[in-house]
Amino acid sequence: MKESPRPFLPLVATFILGLLALTLTAPVSHAQVDEDRIARETRSATSISSSDSDTIRRFVDRQFEAINAGDLVAAQRARRALLNIFEEQGAVSIAFRIEFARITQDRIAAMVRGDDVQAAVTALHLAGKCGTQDLINGPLTSGIRDSRAAVRSAAASGLREVFLGAGDTAARRAQAQQAIEMLAAALAAEQDAVTAGAIASSLARSVGTPFHGFAAETIAPAQNTLARSLRQKQDSINAWVPALQFATSIQFRRLIDPSAQNSPTFHRSVIEANLSTLALISERALDDDATPLNPQNIDQFAELVTASNQTALLATAALTSTSPGRAELADAFRRSATNDNPAPFREAFGRLIDRTAAAAGLTPGDFR
Question: Residue 287's pLDDT is what?
Fold first, then answer.
């Protein structure tokens, strides 16, 4: 049988070869961009050309115009496009980060000040991804002090990105420590339990980074301040458990790190913070006027009691070069909470105070 002619195949081949030739011979530019992204070559460029800068500006203009246009779907897409710049595969260079921050910082600041909470949240995430000094001192500082809880939580996430993205230069290390100090100060002053949990969770991301030790040293006095202030309030403390748990875990993980070199000052601070936390539980969770705890509440408090008990014992052992001994408070707390009788916990807590407070130079009566 005679084969049917296929005259279109040579034409298709010619077209494909011609297209490849045009593609391979076209000049490569970092400035290539589509509507919702910037090319990886631009994002990873070690130096930003004027053409690259124009590309970044056009992209930024387009996204911010969409955010402000009143179309909710378009605004959400634009916010996602801005954040994707830092989350897409491939590292973002320092040069790109600095140029992106320079172009966006005034708009970021305006969004944080504005009434649109979702826009402010996006702006603070961007500020953290850029992590420049102007954005730390400006939008991130105002954000962590904002009257809106959602904005403070977003600022905490942004400050977390500052220390997670810090490089090995002295300037970036200083910025990371500044971000951690800002988070710890915010935790100590926070009036909303959920936001406090978000702040402490952000600080907990320091574990496993070069800034874990600094975070542990910084959060211990913040936890002490927070626990002491909560002892003066009449509201339920149930919602504050996650924040206190995160804070304690940062210190505990530091104490069990075999490579850590912790100071006596740190050990004393840890003991004080965790005794204050246990005193808070003794006074407020087991108070005669407190709302009875349900089984879930009891489990949550028992986990915090265990963590604070172990952490205080480990810090005391390190300070006095002795064995930490057995943590007995969790069982005592469960007996007290289940039977609506604070005596078992308070007796066991009293023994812990006698063992740890004097060793740290603290006044035992401050925790009873």
Answer: 82
Residue 260: closest CA among 274, 270, 275? 270
Q: Which three-class secondary structure state does DSSP give residue 34?
A: strand
Tell me: pLDDT of 25 over 70: no
pLDDT score for 178: 98
Closest to 292 measured CA to CA, from 236, 248, 239: 236
Q: What is the largest CA-CA distance in the chain?
A: 106
| CB atoms closer than 10 angstroms to residue 52 | 23
Complete DSSP assignment for 315-350: HHHHHHTS------HHHHHHHHHHHT--HHHHHHHH
103 contacts 132 by C-beta, under 8 angstroms:
no
pLDDT digits (tens, 9 = 90+) for 193-237: 999 999 999 999 999 999 999 999 999 999 999 999 999 987 889
For residue 35, the model assigns a pLDDT of 56
Residue 114 CB neighbour total at 10 angstroms: 12
CA distance 148 to 123: 14
3-state secondary structure 231-256: HCCCCCCHHHHHHHHHHHHHHHHHHC
Q: Are 319 and 266 in contact (CB under 8 A)?
A: no
- Which strand (E) or helix (H) includes residue 293? none
Question: Residue 38: phi, psi to the nearest 5?
Answer: -115, 140
Mean pLDDT is lowest, of 75-89, 91-105, 135-149, for 75-89
Structure tokens at 81: 């496009």
Identify the residue whose tokens are 């875990």. Answer: 249
pLDDT for res 265: 98
